[in-house]
Specification:
This protein folds into two domains: 6-156, Sandwich (Jelly Rolls); 164-265, Arc Repressor Mutant, subunit A (Orthogonal Bundle). Helices cover 44% and strands 23% of the residues. The protein has helices at residues 91-97, 116-132, 136-154, 167-175, 183-190, 194-205, 209-226, 231-237, 243-254, 258-265, and strands at residues 6-11, 18-25, 29-32, 37-44, 46-51, 54-59, 63-66, 72-76, 82-89, 107-108, 112-113, 155-156. Strands 1-2-9-4-7-11 form a six-stranded antiparallel β-sheet. A four-stranded antiparallel β-sheet has the order 3-8-5-6. A two-stranded antiparallel ribbon has the order 10-12. It starts with 5 loop residues before the first strand and ends with a helix.
Length: 266
């Protein structure tokens, strides 16, 4: 029998627009996405992930990255415990920090990189943000340096390759995730039968419309929590049946309860 291990520390960040997490877990994360750009380092163990370029593996010392809205998952190899640290950047913060550096919209194209220099950048920034260094000038230099190196060495400009036939359905789910909608309504928006739509959406996005809608609600809940709303109000505002329903979805996607997340960001 495998003992479940899932230890998550949601750490306070001294800079707005940045979140920190330290995780030790053999939890299987389902396919999900984040609103932020994420970059982290595997400290021990290894995991296998689904990504837009197929299955990838990350082991000790590897840098793992994910773009905002990019579907991915995380499965421990041989059910072992892997430990990793993640830094999540608000896309608006990245745009502000890199203003003048480039006018293009960048995406990271490799979800895993074996890059010692980048690994040191990420570790140094994480430690600085986590409180090992308090000088604001040093913090800001580390943020900009890590972002510039990441985007120069691991990033490129990519158009959105999602199928045009599901674009209107995606827009609907993105703009009003809290409002219920049926499969038939989404299919009608796309000009497809329900069967055609479900097949096209899953192939284009990587998860089903319902799973995508639940993730959008959970990410909306995360924003409401960070804005200071009470958890019961957040559940209603984000379209969940109740607070328990929100908590289950939140833990499934982010690995931490809404209350623990609230304590770290408020």
């Amino acid at each position: 029998m495998i003992t479940r291990v899932h230890q998550v520390a949601q750490l306070r960040s001294p800079l707005r627009g940045i979140e920190l997490m330290s995780i030790a877990s053999n939890h299987h994360f389902p396919r999900h996405a984040h609103d932020q750009f994420g970059v982290g380092v595997i400290d021990s163990g290894a995991q296998r992930s689904w990504s837009g370029i197929g299955q990838v593996e990350a082991a000790r010392g590897d840098v793992i990255m994910v773009n905002p809205g990019e579907i991915h998952d995380g499965i421990p190899i041989d059910n072992g415990i892997r430990k990793w640290r993640m830094i999540y950047f608000d896309p608006a913060l990245i745009s502000k920090e890199l203003e003048g550096e480039t006018q293009a919209t960048f995406e990271v194209v490799r979800p895993v990189a074996r890059d010692y220099v980048l690994s040191r950048h990420v570790e140094r920034l994480f430690n600085a943000l986590a409180g090992f260094r308090t000088d604001r000038l040093a913090l800001e230099e580390n943020v900009v340096g890590a972002l510039i190196y990441t985007l120069r060495c691991q990033g490129t400009y990519l158009p959105d390759h999602r199928r045009p036939c599901v674009a209107r359905a995606l827009q609907r789910l993105d703009t009003a995730p809290d409002v219920p909608i049926s499969l038939g309504e989404l299919a009608s928006l796309s000009g497809l039968s329900r069967f055609q739509f479900l097949r096209a959406f899953t192939k284009a996005v990587g998860i089903t419309p319902h799973a995508y809608a639940m993730q959008r609600r959970t990410r909306l809940a995360k924003r409401f929590i960070a804005s200071g709303f009470a958890l019961a109000d957040v559940a209603a505002r984000a379209g969940f049946a109740d607070q328990s329903h929100m908590t289950r979805a939140f833990v499934r996607q982010f690995g931490v309860t809404p209350r623990r997340y609230q304590a770290a960001v408020i």
